[in-house]
């Protein structure tokens, strides 16, 4: 088998990828079109109440609305009429306001796109800061100890809606540096961009920081250092070598900055596309909801194509020729023992859970509302006088259990679809455009608001980062020389999968899953914040954050407890991944 056939034969044909995108996009838009009928409520009733909230509709009024909107024609007739108007630039009119949809969506998309670009700048800056130490030391051959990534894990575990509330209060209200509400100019973009970009940048930077030591360990880096090449040039090429493996993670991040920032848009009163889609879904205003979903699908496909082009441009001819060397991380000792850090975090979480389980999480004492931490209430009380330590402890198993289950399902689904490059690429790009909030609305329409409905919603969209990572790593591994050598000597597909491909993918996938575990908790929390997840009075961590967020300024301890528990969980997951990776290393090598 030639190098060309070995390297290029595994890529999906362009027409297959296009067909996958078309099928997945059509299925998504059809599901959105069915939302009013899936919900089990009368769309005419919802629309009429959205037009006049205080009005008690009569059967005659409902019949008039049905006739006006043509609801008796069915979902697919509406869907076909909406599709037929798109080539003429007609996306219909809003069922609630009666105004044309396209100008509304265009304005909201412009706002969201501007916010996304600002958040993307923050993401890149934060990712660069996370990797700065490794880049500086590695380019000078002074990287002698590895990092567990606890700092990045702490930043990535920050709830975006909680960070948004903190920034709006401190930088907007107290200090008056930037507007805390509305969208009036470039200054209005700063605080929302920070709230969205800091956790995303920590996530991307943490993944990149783990791969950089392997690039600095390659022979070319040692040779360049021996010949006196500038450290900056070495650092740039190390980033170019490792960035293709991380770039696919930008696709769901970019789309999330546009369509999934609903909670942040609500806090800052930003009229973005995600908020428009949420409002339209809540009122079952189908034309703007379908148009917003279409814009997100097109954005995801364009972003996916750009990411693939950048990846292949960075990897260069070696990818096409099947001569790409595999990255092997050096056996560097950690600055501090990951097992020790993991043990401390586990002990702290266990102590919180055990202490909380001994208390009643549902006991209401209105005379003890919003009390600060004390001997009687170590974490204080909430707005109803309930003990926060009790609610934190009783919600731990439920929160961690659901998050672990959702993460495991998403990682396994992403692995399987990422290995099916011909089917998974287009599907990944399209599903990555679906915000978890919209997926939550679709599942809630069937299951009702519940923790399992929220978990299903996250599973519907949460597999895309793992699928993108798996596909990228497999493409690079198949283009490596040792895989080509195995093919030449007659290795079959099961052997390649067992001995080469899975060992190259699974460790990175596991690290990504552990790093994203707190993010899963936060997505579930965001759904609870919007009323689509766990319902009161269940003491779930995301629910604790969402119901106490309005009191963050008056009583900050009400959110510090669950936020601190999320940080501990994040550091525990990252430290466990680092200790597992360290356990496979037999000895440290000396880096000259």
TrEMBL record:
Membrane spanning stretches: 21-39, 105-131, 152-177, 189-208, 250-268, 288-310, 340-358, 396-417, 424-445, 451-468, 513-534, 554-580
Record has Nucleus as a keyword: no
GO terms for biological process, alphabetical: transmembrane transport
Source organism, top-level taxon: Bacteria
A Pfam family reported for this protein in Swiss-Prot or TrEMBL: BPD_transp_1
Signal peptide positions on this chain: none
UniProt entry keywords in alphabetical sequence: Cell membrane, Membrane, Transmembrane, Transmembrane helix, Transport
Compartments where located: Cell membrane
GO cellular component, one term: plasma membrane
Residues forming coiled coils: none
Alphabetical list of InterPro entries matching this protein: BP-dependent_transpt_permease, MetI-like, MetI-like_sf
Membrane association type: Multi-pass membrane protein
Cell membrane listed as a keyword: yes
Domain ABC transmembrane type-1: 392-578
Assigned protein family: Belongs to the binding-protein-dependent transport system permease family.
Protein name: ABC transporter permease subunit
Species annotation: Streptomyces paludis
